Amino acid sequence: MSGISTSALATGWTIAATLLAPALRLNLRRRAAKGREITARLPERRGIDPTPRPAGPLLWMHAASVGETMSILPVLDALRHRTKVLLTTGTVTSQALLDQRIPEQNLSADVLHRFAPLDVPSWVQRFLSHWRPDAACFVESELWPNQLAACRTMGIPLMLVNARMSDRSFGYWQRVPGLARRVLGGFARVQARGDEDAERLKALGAPHVESPGDLKFAAPALPVDQAEFDRLNAILAGRPVWLAASTHPNEEPLIAAAHRDLAPRYPGLLTIIAPRHPDRGPTLAAELQAPRRTAGQGPPAGEGIWIADTIGELGLWYRLAPIAFVGRSLIPPGGGQNPLEPVRLGCAIAVGPYTGNFSDHVALLRQAGGLVEVADAATLASFVSSMLDNPDQRRRLGEHAAAAVRRHADLPARTAETLLSLLPAQNLASSPAQNLESPPGQNIVSSPGLAR
Fold it and tell me: For strand 304-307 and strand 270-275, is the pairing parallel, antiparallel, or unpaired?
């Protein structure tokens, strides 16, 4: 790969994305048929949108999925009434979350959600030409070369927020250092989620890197339908309940094995499995001979497993189950899922050994005595058993973890101020009736071409 020039790689990506456009259209329709896209909104994925651009300064923020979206909700609060925000995401789960949270936080007047265009040059250009954002913000590690290149061409300042650089990604970028410099060099500001991420980003050529902290520490608690919680809580009252959340393929058999180990000792035991991808629900239900929520089936009356294959209800499950295992961590390569979500709701949590994408979070919780690490079905069953047998220990574990994550309370406000500094001052000072034809992004920090 070192023998291929950076410009050739960038050009190759652009050509490949253009040639793949027909296949991407077909794939979008297939995803919609599986419930992973919304048919009526597929044009947005090609940059087609009849919705008019809001008047005044417009900040484009992109968060790939639910975790990234949750982390920036406090930032959206801090931006309220100061600029309009075009918030794009790439999943129906994040859209469902925002449909609930935007009205709940009274952000409807300031935040507009759309689905992000796929990284096809003409689709990206159509999107940017229509919305004409004054600045753009990408959350964590969402770096699409044609999007970034088009922003640079249009003079739109870029910021990377809560930036992360995993071991795996860092290894990849180190093999193409020139490409890394061109991609990361296009950002006017980079806020890393931790010191390790900041050092890696600097090593790869990112300018203006700082490490103010992880926005996920300041994220709000996951939402819940209170009436549904009250209903299910009454049904499950008195039963031993634990949750395996955000699970991935090959983890569920281990979770089922842990349940079988525990069931003889805990009459009426309920194990809730909430797969990371809810569309796996029917397959899991068949494999484990378990009822599933989206089929209208409630929890088994006696001991058993219940498949919680719904979208946007993780806050419900974490509230119903005081003991939680956080998935994508038992089977390599893993990577983990966000352990702060259950901690914020007081759960006693366990994770597997493969949590590389959340190493800082796990280290913090470990140091605070707020997390247990398990290696297999047997140790998972042992964790659940100890939590069921020792309610005081379970509460202490949850309290220690919750105390550890109550930090960086002012980080969302500071992040909002940095984002606002990227917007042209004349736009912020002018009225909503300003002339929208002026070019966006007057204070861009120039860089060479962007690619991935």
Answer: parallel
Query: Angle at which helices 377-389 and 252-262 pack, to 10 degrees?
Result: 50
90 φ/ψ angles, rounded to the nearest 5 degrees: -125, 5
Q: Quick one: which of 178, 177, 182 has its CA closest to 158?
A: 182
The residue behind tokens 């029917």 is 282
Q: What are the residue numbers of the active site?
A: 68
Asked if the domains 6-214+410-429 and 226-405 are classified in one and the same CATH topology, the answer is yes
Q: CA-to-CA distance for 331 and 333, rounded, in angstroms?
A: 6
* DSSP 8-state assignment for residue 292: B
| Cα(204)–Cα(206) distance, integer angstroms | 6
Average pLDDT over residues 307-325: 96
> Tell me, which fold does domain 226-405 have in CATH?
Rossmann fold (3.40.50)
208-243 residue pLDDT tens: 999 998 998 888 888 899 999 999 999 999 999 999
Looking at the structure, give the CATH architecture of the domain made up of residues 6-214+410-429.
Answer: 3-Layer(aba) Sandwich (3.40)
- DSSP SS3 for 109: coil
